[in-house]
Write a structure and sequence with these properties.
about 325 residues, alpha/beta, globular
């Protein structure tokens, strides 16, 4: 049976794919878009569009939620450097509180809150990939973005404990088409293709197809257990940055960087880059937040989402191939 769905952040990288996944299954979708948002990622999508800022227009949010069965809250501010982090905390923490409270009041049967794998504890991730049982403390959040998302997840978990039908999903490092901004992970791919990565650091991520992440959101609404969180990643996607670049070399025909940059050297470059950013107002090429995250291998075990939700497992190399095609030609590989 078709559900009536609201998607916040519908024009974003993951959000646009969630919209497409819902439409493919025949669900009715309303996209809640903040004024001035680039909507290119929604090209060709048959959805109802409502323009409203949920932070400043509670009546618009309530109107968008009227009659909605499933609410997908993906809207977030994702920045590793900002001259002022206040607006990011307002969007990610207070925005989450407002959307989830309004969706609960509206009678939604499922509320999917999009968190991040960065909110999962990483104590031994390089030895044994982290799972949902690995609890992270606030003190472990190494940058403002992760801290804002951690606090937002606490809001979602508290509301679920109080009876709201909230399910939390934690995407790892999605790659694929329509990464318009791009995201920090997409920026790595774009810089590689533009020959702007002369070196690499010894870090690791869990790479996953953004299409699988979108399917995971829909599956969480269909099959997820209220109050639970699910890592949306790939069981074969725990690669070092060097391994990922070797795949990119084979897929793109461009040589991967051979120089491994010591972490202390990367920190020095980041300090210099952020110092220049403070003078110019332009974002740093190498933000400190990114280097701090690189100190840990962010490897995860998505077995719970595979087992309980049926999370698809597209080979990460295929997701990278699609991303390379899109960054070069501006269209998904599957679209020719």
């Amino acid at each position: 049976m078709a559900a009536r769905c609201l998607v916040t952040g519908a024009s974003g990288f993951i959000g646009a794919h969630v919209v497409r996944a819902l439409r493919t299954r025949g669900h009715h979708v309303t996209a809640l878009l903040r004024p001035g948002t680039d909507r290119s990622a929604l090209a060709g999508c048959e959805v109802r569009r409502i323009e409203s800022d949920y932070l400043t227009d509670p009546s618009g949010l309530r109107a968008a939620l009227e009659g909605v069965d499933w609410c997908f809250h993906l809207a977030a501010s994702y920045h590793l450097w900002l001259p002022d982090y206040g607006p990011m905390f307002a969007t990610n923490v207070e925005g989450t509180r407002r959307v989830l409270a309004a969706a609960t009041e509206a009678g939604c049967s499922r509320i999917i809150h999009t968190s991040t794998a960065g909110c999962i504890g990483l104590a031994n991730a390089a030895i044994s990939p982290a799972d949902e049982g690995c609890i992270a403390k606030e003190a472990e959040m190494t940058n403002p973005y992760k801290l804002s998302k951690w606090r937002a997840e606490q809001v979602a978990a508290t509301m679920a404990a109080q009876g709201a039908p909230v399910i939390i999903v934690n995407p790892t490092a999605p790659v694929g088409a329509w990464d318009l901004k791009p995201t920090p992970t997409g920026l790595i791919l774009r810089d590689f293709l533009r020959r702007r990565l002369p070196a690499y650091v010894d870090t690791g991520l869990n790479w996953v197809s953004v299409r699988d992440v979108a399917e995971g959101h829909v599956l969480a609404a269909e099959r997820g257990r209220i109050g639970e969180r699910y890592i949306l990643g790939n069981a074969d996607g725990n690669w070092t940055l060097r391994q990922m670049m070797q795949h990119l070399e084979e897929l793109s025909g461009l040589p991967a960087p051979k120089i491994r940059l010591p972490l202390w050297c990367a920190f020095g470059a980041a300090f210099a880059s952020e110092g220049l950013a403070k003078l110019t107002g332009h974002p740093p090429r190498a933000p400190l937040a990114g280097v701090r995250m690189a100190a840990d291998k962010m490897w995860f075990n998505p077995a719970k989402a595979i087992r309980e939700l049926g999370l698809p497992q597209t080979p990460p190399r295929e997701a990278l191939r699609e991303a390379v095609h899109w960054f070069r030609d501006g269209v998904p590989a599957s679209d020719g």
